Amino acid sequence: MLEGSCLCGAVRWGVDGPVTGIECCHCSRCRKATGSAFAPALAARRRDFRWLAGEDRVRVFALPLRERPPPYRRAFCDRCGGPVPLVDPDEPTLELLAGALDGDPGTRLIQHIYTAAAAPWWALDDGLPHHAEHAGAARIRAQLDTADQDGGHSSW
Q1: Is residue 112's pLDDT more than 80?
Q2: Other residues' Cβ atoms within 10 Å of the Cβ of residue 47
Q3: % of the chain with per-residue pLDDT over 70
Q4: How do residues 66-94 score in pLDDT, each as one tens digit?
Q5: Rounded to whole angstroms, how far apart are CA atoms 14 and 1?
Q6: Is 6 exposed, middle or buried (0-12, 13-18, 19+ CB in 10 A)?
Q7: How far apart are the C-alpha atoms of 135 and 142, rounded to whole Å?
């Protein structure tokens, strides 16, 4: 099982199933939320996710909708402010910030998204694919389906 936790360790979670490759989101909201050039995230199926401790400490901050759904939401520990997964019961997948994982997810960086909004001081020169916007939820589902067929292992 892949596990993760907040900065203080009060909130912990696990994923018992496949995950996608890691994509780096360069949108301005992800940059502000992480204080970095991008937010490295991977996805998992909600049905494979479970809280191991501290679910009652999870809080959600939401910004209003910009041009199209969904609005930007960020989940965090109310004790340390560390990021935790945002679990939406209406969504079949959820995002995990790679930096909050406690071990090796068994996957690596696969692409950069929202590069049209990338920080001017960060060089996007790692040879990975760049997308001006998001590559889409269908791609995430396809990655998870492929991992299911491969026995939970990915090669992304």
Answers
A1: yes
A2: 10
A3: 83
A4: 666 567 899 999 999 999 999 999 999 99
A5: 6
A6: buried
A7: 12
Residue with tokens 């696969």: 110
Closest CA to 25 of 128, 103, 145, 155: 128
Which domains does the chain possess? 2-143 (2.170.150.70)
- pLDDT for residue 136: 62
* pLDDT tens digit sequence for 45-71: 999 999 999 999 999 999 877 666 567
Give me the torsion for CA of 72, 78, 83, 89, rounded to 10°: -60
Residue (of 70, 54, 45) closest to 11 by Cα position: 54
SS3 string of the chain? Answer: CEEEECCCCCCEEEECCCECCEEEECCHHHHHHHCCCCEEEEEEEHHHEEEEECHHHEEEEECCCCCCCCCCEEEEECCCCCEECCCCCCCCEEEEEHHHECCCCCCCEEEEECHHHCCCCCCCCCCCCECCCCCCHHHHHHHHHHHHHCCCCCCC
